[in-house]
User: Which sequence fits this backbone?
């Protein structure tokens, strides 16, 4: 089958209008990855191109494609229609697909100048900073006290969520760029901080939160009381944890506590119960993490706080008191308890997973200043500490959060360091997103079920540390990507070309264009769905679309005709071709097709032009799109007849099999 | 606005085939608004001509350029070089456009690609209807704001005739009887008595039938 030539990286420029508005997914992403673009490329099956887009901002694409907290999905406007696009899974699909093609894994080799930067810590923040500094031509040297790089991604996140070989591949890409990672080197022990600072032009502290917080309760010194971080480190390193029994209580309700519970379940094969202060709807762990843990047999006891660890030398249980409220009126953490409402949960092991803190002892006395609580004094704008040339990023300064947020902090620090070292870079402006879909517009968008990621069966997966999620795979991955609404990628209008004819106002199904009394037009980007009908109808060529401009489509026609004497104007949503042998020009909807474009294909040498269309009662993505397509084909046939060509050379084919708009099989 | 429709393609071919370098000139006002002769339509026509001429081995070129209004010399002057370089200028404006070009550029061969059809109101997307014939003596105050001169098949000024059936004109079920409309409008305005008054003969000398018209305004002369 001739491959779809339309959506290469170069043919696709969503959201580049004068308004500067971007899709909400991209704005919500802490590192502002151009999710819409890579989603469209995945929909087109162009995985290596998609991965390249991801790599523009993301130094750890494979890892983040598995473990991201995906704030993009919370912002996704498809959530107003049915469910958000599975953006994180699509990111994984891009890297899996590119890998299967054997493309996208050769790192660039930037030339380094004389300057070098020491980065302390090889977690997501340090690696992101190293990657970006390398691209600026500054030599990064990463110091990692653990025997292997990756920081909390390696020591804190378990193989069942992020397989080590995947993390290794992400890191290998970064070292392939010339980034040096010195593992097993503890700053403050093997190398003094001052010595490090003297040997480098700048230092970035990205040590994360490496120490578990403990609890000031009776019985905490009993055998069988463990802390989350050392426990996860041991499990991750494959070391035995002899203190681990068969009745395990995990204190905490965050994402780390979930990982502790799920790994304890796997290592011990015993009962695991999480105890947390919060009511179930308040738990800080992500819903899907909680769901996975429960599916694996982890029990959760909510609204209970630890009163004492029961046992005389060996843990026998946890005495709990009922937690009445967790937050005060200002929303600050200030739990209140009913001191008389006590209960005891029997158990032989307690793992405390209530939060983490940094260990800044490696600075000695000579480093940058710490405040009274031992936290780095930090200029958030400039990512600077109080010592000149020493910067900081990641959870050590931002507090606990998602890996991608730590990366965002590292990327900002890289720019700060670049500026400090005289590189011509600056902090990017914060992007602005389109607003929510107006309700009536959301109601006009056809629903299409979100593809869920297949996972190994619960009873099988709790017996090992093999990866739980299996990836969407090609069909579901591309179909899922096809659900994208192309926010902010719609109509762009030229005030100087507009003749105020009001045609767009009359034809838009979503009432996006509005004209004032002087005929001055505005196309509301919140409403526009990028169907293209206004583009085809505008008589003055005043409207084009950000997603595939008219010139882009013409170029795609030329490309399609390089390998075939026929062109298919196809619709990329059903993921179904109507003319397999024709060169493909895939469009968000064939309503994009103007008579001029049809004639252009014939003028460019097409002997036959195929156009895909939906049926009246099964109209695809856009409510009136199929009518526009049919009309243009009729017009086109008349135009062909007039010029003595066979009108049947313009073939309209009904798309029967719409994989993407059907529920998952 | 003025509306115009494209001539049958074979008529356009019959003229253009005699020429090598053809310049299709679009007009981005009335005929663009009625979606027949603006920039996009001019390009479609040019594309059709190129394909057809290519098939028949006719040498030369077909290019396009569009001005905001062909009825104003200042806009035409902006395309003077392209016009003078062409063997034939094919205008997609109403008939005023090609005349304007012919007058502005003596010696240039000009052909109309369109037939001017009416002064119209926009009834909806892709739908226009004639509301005025420029009689030069507007009397719609007496007919409820509806013009029987433009919209009655017989141009009756004292209607309706016996051919009004069920609100439709006898010439076609697609045509509304304008006198039915006038009647209904006057009733709704409480002015049905107007229908009993006989209008005297209309002054036709101000219409096109009174000879060619021009308009001049008093006031500042630059």
Assistant:
């Amino acid at each position: 089958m001739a491959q779809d030539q339309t959506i290469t990286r170069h043919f696709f420029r969503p959201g580049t209008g004068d308004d500067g508005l971007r899709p909400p997914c991209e704005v919500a992403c802490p590192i502002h990855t151009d999710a819409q673009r890579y989603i469209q490329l995945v929909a087109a099956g162009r995985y290596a191109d998609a991965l390249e887009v991801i790599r523009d901002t993301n130094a750890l694409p494979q890892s983040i494609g598995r473990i991201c907290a995906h704030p993009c999905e919370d912002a996704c406007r498809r959530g107003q229609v049915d469910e958000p696009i599975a953006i994180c899974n699509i990111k994984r699909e891009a890297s899996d697909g590119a890998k299967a093609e054997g493309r996208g894994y050769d790192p660039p080799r930037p030339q380094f100048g004389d300057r070098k930067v020491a980065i302390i810590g090889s977690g997501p923040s340090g690696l992101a900073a190293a990657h970006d500094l390398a691209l600026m031509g500054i030599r990064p040297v990463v110091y990692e006290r653990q025997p292997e790089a990756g920081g909390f991604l390696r020591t804190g996140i378990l193989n069942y969520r992020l397989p080590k070989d995947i993390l290794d591949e992400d890191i290998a890409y970064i070292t392939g760029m010339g980034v040096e990672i010195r593992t097993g080197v503890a700053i403050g022990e093997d190398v003094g901080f001052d010595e490090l600072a003297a040997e480098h032009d700048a230092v970035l502290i990205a040590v994360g939160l490496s120490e578990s917080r403990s609890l000031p309760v009776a019985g905490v010194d009993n055998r069988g009381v463990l802390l989350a971080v050392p426990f996860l480190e041991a499990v991750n390193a494959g070391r035995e944890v002899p203190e681990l029994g068969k009745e395990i209580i995990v204190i905490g309700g965050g994402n780390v506590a979930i990982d502790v519970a799920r790994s304890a379940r796997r290592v011990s094969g015993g009962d695991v119960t999480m105890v947390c202060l919060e009511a179930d709807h308040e738990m800080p762990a992500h819903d899907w993490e909680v769901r996975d843990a429960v599916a694996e047999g982890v029990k959760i006891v909510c609204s209970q706080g630890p009163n004492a660890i029961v046992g005389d030398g060996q843990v026998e249980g946890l005495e709990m008191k009922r937690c009445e409220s967790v937050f005060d009126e200002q929303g600050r953490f200030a739990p209140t308890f009913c001191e008389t409402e006590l209960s005891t949960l029997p158990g032989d092991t307690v793992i405390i997973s209530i939060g983490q803190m940094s260990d800044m002892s490696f600075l000695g006395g000579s480093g940058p200043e710490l405040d009274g609580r031992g936290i780095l004094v930090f200029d958030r704008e400039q990512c600077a500490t109080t010592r000149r040339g020493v910067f900081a990023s990641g959870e050590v300064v931002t507090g606990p959060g998602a890996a991608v947020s730590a990366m965002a902090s590292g990327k900002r620090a890289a720019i700060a360091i670049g500026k400090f070292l005289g590189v011509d870079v600056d902090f990017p402006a914060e992007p602005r997103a389109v607003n929510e879909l107006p309700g009536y517009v959301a109601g006009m968008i056809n629903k299409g079920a979100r593809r869920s990621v297949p996972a190994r069966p619960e009873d099988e997966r709790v017996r090992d540390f093999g990866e739980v999620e299996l990836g969407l795979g090609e069909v579901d991955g591309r179909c899922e990507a096809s659900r994208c609404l192309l926010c902010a990628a719609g109509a762009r209008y030229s005030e100087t070309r507009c003749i105020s004819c009001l045609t767009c106002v009359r034809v838009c199904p979503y009432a996006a264009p509005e004209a004032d009394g002087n005929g001055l037009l505005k196309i509301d980007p919140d409403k526009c769905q990028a169907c293209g009908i206004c583009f085809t109808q505008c008589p003055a060529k005043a409207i084009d679309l950000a997603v595939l401009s008219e010139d882009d489509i013409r170029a795609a026609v030329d490309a399609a005709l390089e390998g075939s004497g026929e062109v298919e104007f196809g619709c990329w949503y059903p993921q179904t071709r109507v003319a397999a042998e024709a060169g493909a020009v895939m469009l968000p909807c064939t309503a994009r097709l103007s008579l001029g474009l049809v004639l252009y294909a014939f003028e460019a040498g097409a002997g036959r032009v195929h156009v895909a269309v939906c049926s009246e009662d099964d109209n695809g993505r856009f409510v009136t799109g199929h009518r526009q397509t049919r009309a243009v084909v009729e017009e086109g046939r008349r135009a062909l007849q007039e010029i003595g060509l066979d009108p049947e050379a313009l073939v309209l084919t009904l798309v029967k099999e719409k994989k993407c708009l059907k529920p998952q099989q | 606005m003025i509306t115009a429709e494209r001539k049958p393609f074979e008529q356009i071919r019959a003229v253009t085939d005699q020429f090598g370098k053809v310049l299709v000139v679009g007009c981005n006002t009335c005929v663009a608004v009625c979606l027949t002769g603006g920039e996009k339509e001019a390009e479609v026509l040019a594309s059709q001509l190129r394909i057809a001429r290519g098939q028949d081995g006719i040498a030369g070129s077909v290019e396009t350029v569009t001005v905001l209004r062909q009825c104003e010399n200042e806009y035409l002057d902006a395309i003077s070089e392209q016009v003078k370089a062409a063997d034939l200028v094919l205008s997609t404006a109403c008939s005023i456009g090609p005349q304007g070009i012919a007058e502005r550029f003596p010696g240039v061969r000009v052909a109309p690609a369109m037939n001017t059809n009416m002064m119209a109101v926009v009834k909806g997307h892709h739908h226009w209807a004639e509301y005025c014939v420029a009689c030069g003596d507007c009397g719609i105050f007496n007919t409820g704001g509806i013009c029987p001169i433009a919209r009655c098949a017989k141009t009756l000024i004292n209607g309706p005739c016996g051919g009004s059936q069920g609100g439709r004109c006898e010439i076609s079920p697609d045509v509304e009887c304008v006198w039915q409309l006038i009647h209904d409008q006057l009733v709704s305005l409480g002015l049905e008595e107007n229908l009993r008054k006989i209008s005297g003969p209309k002054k036709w000398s101000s219409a096109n039938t009174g000879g060619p018209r021009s308009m001049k305004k008093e006031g500042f002369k630059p």
In short: DSSP finds 23 helices and 25 strands in chain A.
